[in-house]
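Render Glycine--tRNA ligase in 3D.
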Amino acid sequence: MTQEELFKKLIAHSKEYGFVFPSSEIYDGLSAVYDYGQNGVELKNNIRRYWWEAMTRLNENIVGIDAAIFMHPQTWVASGHVGAFNDPLIDNKDSKKRYRADVLIEEWMEKQRGKIEKEVEKARKRFGEKFDEALFRQTNPRIQSIAEKINAVNSRMVEALEQNNLAEIKKIIEDCEIVCPISGTKNWTDVRQFNLMFETKLGSVSDDASTIYLRPETAQGIFVNYINVQKTGRMKIPFGIAQVGKAFRNEIVARQFIFRMREFEQMEMQFFVRPGEEMKWYEFWMEKRMRWHRAMGFGDEKYRYHKHEKLAHYANAASDIEFEFPFGFKEVEGIHSRTDFDLGNHQKHSGKKLQYFDPELNKSYIPYVIETSIGLDRTFLLVLSAAYAEEKIAKEDGSTDERVVLRIPAPLAPVKLAVFPLVKKDGLPEMARKIMDDLKYDFACQYEEKDTIGKRYRRHDAIGTPFCITVDHQTLEDETVTIRYRDTMEQERVPASRLREIMADKVSLSNMLRQI
């Protein structure tokens, strides 16, 4: 199965099992807008809680807020979004499709890196155990040639984007002979900039209404509340402010399912530090945020850092944490050293003093900021992508069966445990209901009695339920039940009276938090 086929199956699975639906589907949907179904919203809530508690519970100097989506329009002038929040877009004249020009170039570079990896794999098979990969990468002429092309194109792109040289960006696309993925032609328009913010009107009469924006990020809500939080919370530097909330971007090239949407949710933390100490804290949060990701248990090799060569207008250092999705390594979280750009500009445009008086240094200054910004929807897709598996199962008669399973970490799973009576008679449903009613106050549970026990197991494998509890005739005799484990399909007999204790340990979020 190719990665493209896997991704299509994942999208179909998400809809079939109540994770993600196309928005307004009965009206043929709305491009790049999605709704979360009954299982999706539970998974999303659990991921959100995992992030929130990792920030606010584990760090005594980080607190949370919930700022409004609507903000004074001058906020976005001060932040630079009105003047500089643009994407370079290009159209193919034959397919009539529009693309981000920089993404086309980045995808071309990724294909070239793929060629290098193919050369390495061919050499590995040819030389076997004697193969020295590092030496081969350094000395092979073809690899060296491809690497030089990648570096040259990347340098040109970075310089062109920094200088807003749109003609040069188009020239790179032409020089690389990049074709439209739909038409296969190189018939491109010129590159032009497109502002990503949604505008709306505030006011009851259209003539008197003022233009405001749906926020394109949640960070500015933190910055404009920085002084309120610092004073009311008596916060001392270094300290952080965390927020989870919706943001909106008029993405022209929204694609790859929920990876890039027009309405999405961000989990951001702004960490305020002394000027001159920002790089120490930048490195600190780079490492700590990677530990948060790895604690989910999907494999360290699935993650990598990507250092930005082209920095945003507010940053003096920036890196992404990338995850290997079915469509390649892509950004899921950014860590940025934003300097004092935001607070400095808001102080300038508002006329309000946003300086911090440092009693240890006996002076006032505008703090520098380290930002961690992670997409909740992208993390949701990360979890689904990493958890999805199709397996063949050997049966006792020598034949094989198949199952689709989501190996979601137990603390994040939408349903923590399912309770089944083995059959719908002999008092087993009543006993199962009694156990269910006892456990539902502590855990997200589901009760099922329809179909065979095997079909019930398969349904819960498909939504990621880590534990299924079966009540059978032996339960009526000795009050024991069977726990069936999703990942191994092994079964364990335990006293029903111990279920709460056993489940509490296995689904506790603290097990993941302790690894950070």
